[in-house]
């Protein structure tokens, strides 16, 4: 039981990755702009699509780090 | 309107015939006794990571989403992209909270969220509130799936005046009702695989082909009016479009997995691990949805609204015609058939799951709780099958006889209502601190205030909250769930003091929530 709780608390730092995801998309002034655009797509659009990909990677990291 | 597009129509009908066969054949897939509710209504809780991915993906990213999000981009511009941050925030919530729900429901054989609330708080009235909210929020959602189906059938050129025009819709719906009745959740689970493969194929074909046809992304975005390209920067003393955008995304994310059809999808998984893995895999759909949202801009850049051949379609279906018109304009007929079938089948999958979820709620938390307390297993499953039919035909009647706008407005209200179950369902996964009657009072206040605020803003999603000279336009659902929570927190010690020591038994223990 002690070992289990130790593992849980060590693992819990990984959950901060989720907080980063929330902050990244919850502050529109940061990404509500056209430049820098990428292959003609304004920043507003490619940034948020990138957040989806990064979010998936973060979630996978948390999964492997905590769901051993 | 354009003539019937025969090539597209034949492909469409063939694909529909295939999924009809698949829907009935699904009854024999991972065979279980369909006279048991958890076999009919949850597929026996046997779906692994991959099937859950298709099922929940087919459930969350509905046909209506694929029509309405690009339509919003086409009509209103950047704000439509809120669907993307929304889906970024869903998955951490799915990862953290919902494996706990799966664990406790698996342990106690709960089939609905209201079953869990009943066990956790021992209060059947609180469970009833959760069940009724779920059913009422789901019904307009089913009706909206039919709107998606209606648009693609119309775009195939199958139109006639009066109620005869609804015949194809009615046929599609009878098929849906029949295979849901006979196969339960196995039907949408198997069909979701076909539907999702078709949708991915369509989305990626469109994202490659259309920009090439239109001369690249630079040209497409240059054609989008400046007012639609970005969110409007807020003026003085208001958080303006920024606050609205962020609260819409956050509120929608908090509400989504409280919907009965999403909970049904989650509970049908074979383990909490399958759910966690899906939190990392389901963003694949979010990415595709983001690409599809861009289709609204493609339609703008292609100038489809000005072309005479699509004038009738835009007149009949409004901006919802943007994506079908784009596909008609960009793809050869045979691929139009594939794309439209993807959207049409994409309507049937969530509609089936939603009707099953609503039927489970009625059967378990209304009928069993208040009408027949000791049904046999077979009676219970039979009741759910009948309810799934009743729910679907109700939605069909609504779409045939009531204006589409009503379904859209009710679905908006549904979002405000369903989020009010957050304290009793999602927070209760972590704590039993709340008093059950305080939760019920919070639910009632949140539901009433949310409905009043929505009516005061003419059924638009955001409410301009004014405070100390500042205005904070934000998603009504998010504001009212905060109010709901405040009421529950304030009343909990009061009601606990009034009740004395006779706190109802919690049927669950802490270990039930861990995998």
Structural commentary:
The complex is a heterodimer of chains A (68) and B (515). With 68 residues, chain A is mostly helical. Chain A has one domain (2-66). Chain A has helices at residues 2-12, 16-26, 28-31, 43-66. Chain A is elongated. Chain B has one domain (8-231, 239-420): Sodium/glucose cotransporter. Chain B is built from 23 helices and two strands. In chain B, a hairpin with a 2-residue loop joins β1 and β2. In chain B, strands 1-2 form a two-stranded antiparallel ribbon. Helices cover 73% and strands 2% of the residues of chain B. Chain B is globular, with a radius of gyration of 23 Å. In chain B, α9 packs across α15 (283-301) and α22 packs antiparallel against α23 (476-499). With 515 residues, chain B is mainly α. The interface between A and B is large, with 32 and 40 residues.
Give me a quick take on this structure:
Chain A has 68 residues and is mainly α.
